[in-house]
């Protein structure tokens, strides 16, 4: 596949990406290469990546534990200290080989280390390929509050290597599909309709759809890199979805939700709100609800969970002047941002979630 060129970065696919890295990762450009992995990608992805990487620059591997709970300032401090101990300088480069947690975290670590060094994303999950690694958003959580500290800095490049998808289980694949569904719902009804026929898609079809999803997001970012306006629509499903994800992160002895699972629930709930506010037709709401409910398991919320989720909305990054701002659907393929929603309607959405 041909590369996608975006603001300050380029996205390469498979062998073309490794050819570009071979040209980029030379002693003339970089003093040392640091590759950040978690314990899963170290075992399942690093050998394949290194077997395709040709460079004369010294390489250091840094491993952290996998999981959202690692995406915090404590891990950042540990990584900065390790990089200093291993001789990192302003001419070092950090390659982030992993899913969305690792690309968010690694991008933030690199963007702030010695006031910023180059970094490269090599996403290994579907979710990271189509969303987390794309667009220059880097950040960490504050406790269970998602992405409260961060920056927008573009990676030097992004390498999408489709072979890494073979390391994922079905649950991780579905999590990534949630973001692809979102791109169709907010931007392109024809793309949404393609994704709805999942059972008929071949592997090559999926790869083409991944590239199309990336292009849809890149087109938005090209108009609004710093999320002053249009880019906000990429947060559809995330106002409630992030609050749901944070709620389950805080719950002891509870099965944690993957990001895409929480976002799928958020998209159903926010589609209901869109319908009730006369923005979305009932027919399209039911289409979204039935399809997403068929792909993703229903999440069970207690009354206390719902109260906690509504409390967590106050920390959403889109909020302005103390007002919670939703992204809602005007129809499939078109979203609108900066929408105020009464709590009564949010409670009603949760009630409907269980009826469907």
TrEMBL record:
Q: Which domain of life is it from?
A: Bacteria
What this protein needs as a cofactor is: NAD(+); Co(2+)
* Cited SUPFAM superfamilies: Dehydroquinate synthase-like
Which Gene3D superfamilies does the entry mention?
Answer: 3.40.50.1970, Dehydroquinate synthase-like - alpha domain
Give the EC number.
Answer: 4.2.3.4
One Pfam family assigned to this protein is DHQS_C
Record-linked InterPro entries: Dehydroquinate_synthase, DHQ_synth_AroB, DHQ_synth_fam, DHQS/DOIS_N, DHQS_C
Task: Give the keywords, sorted.
Answer: Cobalt, Lyase, Metal-binding, NAD, Nucleotide-binding, Zinc
Task: Using the record's annotation, list all stretches that form the 3-dehydroquinate synthase N-terminal domain.
Answer: 62-174
Span of domain 3-dehydroquinate synthase C-terminal: 176-319
MF terms from GO for this chain are:
3-dehydroquinate synthase activity
What does the UniProt function comment say about this protein?
Catalyzes the conversion of 3-deoxy-D-arabino-heptulosonate 7-phosphate (DAHP) to dehydroquinate (DHQ).
Q: What is this protein called?
A: 3-dehydroquinate synthase
Q: Which species? A: Flavobacterium nakdongensis
